[in-house]
Design brief:
This protein is an alpha/beta fold and 320 residues long. The protein has a single domain, classed as Phosphatidylinositol (PI) phosphodiesterase (TIM Barrel, Alpha-Beta Barrel). Helix content is 33%, strand content 16%. It contains 12 helices and 11 strands. The strands form 2 sheets. The chain has an 8-stranded parallel barrel with strand order 2-3-5-6-7-8-9-10, surrounded by 7 helices. Strands 1-11 form a two-stranded antiparallel ribbon. Helix 11 crosses helix 12 (295-302). The longest helix is centred in the first third of the chain and has 14 residues, at 3-16. The protein is globular, with a radius of gyration of 19 Å. The protein starts with a helix and ends with a strand.
Length: 320
């Protein structure tokens, strides 16, 4: 049997047995079976996006699905995976963008293809034609029928469904990202993730209309942001992967800024060990968005903290 035939044989087996649970959730004793309903965030303009991300006392706490929220049968950075999360909860979708040898922007976290696809080699050393021939594998290494999406496909998919935060890999020119966002008219849907104040300044100069996720973990970094001249109404504050004090979160809220706490990693592990109630405590201490590898579980834990009436409610819709 040739390697190609082996691939198709494994794919057929995967489809036959649905690659584990069809809803992507392993333990249904912990998470109720979702109804066939999608939970969308709908914004139609940059002004609505700015309003959505402007902190108010009636803000609705929510999750950000790290790498799109992979679960068994649903690989990271896959549009099908994004949709699976939205079947349970509205979510910001965090995704990773890399670039092929022939300058096509695709969703991929690693430099190499080996871990998440049926392919081999580095993303920036292969063509998009080769990428198109591959299938994605979930985090347990199980083959799926899903393909590697392009950034363009993800941007178009997001409209009327979710807000994206775009993690730009080192080899990708910022200009290419901005060009793709503008060509697809996705300015209202895509915030760009930065890892330094220099990067944030550069992107703000290139595309002052776009929202930026900027790492702000202490008072010194608040000052550095202000010295950089980036308007607060274009900033979402990523406060790191360790919980900040309520006083620090309040200082950001006073500037009208949403805070994203990275619970992925140690804090997610703490929730597994101590109970998902810990997610609610992060929100009560001033985190607004939880960036997590467990978006379905985290969202369920914080859903009771949402205000019964909110000026933000108009952006959230349920679609059967």
């Amino acid at each position: 049997m040739t390697s190609k035939n082996i691939l198709w044989f494994h794919l057929a087996i995967c489809l036959l047995f649905s690659c584990k649970s069809s809803n992507g959730v392993e333990n249904q004793t912990e998470i109720d079976q979702a109804e066939v309903k999608f939970h969308y965030i709908q914004v139609n303009s940059l002004s609505e996006t700015e309003n959505f991300y402007t902190w108010t006392t009636d803000r609705i706490p929510m999750v950000s699905a790290h790498r799109g929220g992979p679960y068994p049968g649903f690989p990271e950075n896959s549009i099908e995976t994004f949709a699976n999360v939205l079947n349970y909860t509205p979510s910001i979708i965090e995704l990773d963008v890399a670039m092929t040898k022939d300058s096509v922007l695709v969703l991929m976290h690693d430099d190499d293809l080996d871990r998440t696809t049926t392919g081999k080699g580095k993303v920036n050393e292969v063509t998009f034609e080769y990428i198109q021939s591959l299938f994605l594998e979930d985090n347990d290494g199980n083959l799926t029928e899903f393909k590697v999406p392009t950034l363009k496909e993800a941007l178009l998919w997001s409209k009327g469904k979710a807000l994206l935060t775009v993690d730009i890999k080192r080899s990708v020119p910022y200009e290419k990202i901005v060009e793709e966002v503008r060509e697809t008219k996705s300015e209202a849907h895509a915030a760009l993730i930065t890892y330094s104040f220099e990067a944030a300044k550069k992107l703000n100069r290139m595309a002052p209309e776009l929202m930026l996720s900027v790492t702000i973990r202490n008072e010194e970094e608040i000052k550095r942001l202000e010295d950089a001249g980036i308007p607060w109404n274009r900033v979402i504050a990523f406060t790191g992967v360790a919980e900040r004090t309520p006083e620090f979160n309040k200082a950001l809220h006073q500037k009208g800024v949403f805070t994203i706490l990275g619970v992925l990693g140690n804090l997610d592990k703490s929730a597994i060990a101590r109970g998902d109630e810990i997610y609610a405590s992060f929100i009560q201490n001033g985190a607004d968005i939880l960036a997590t590898d467990r978006p379905i579980e985290a969202a369920k834990a914080i859903q009771t903290l949402s205000p019964k009436t909110s000026s933000k409610s108009k952006y959230f819709t349920h679609v059967d």
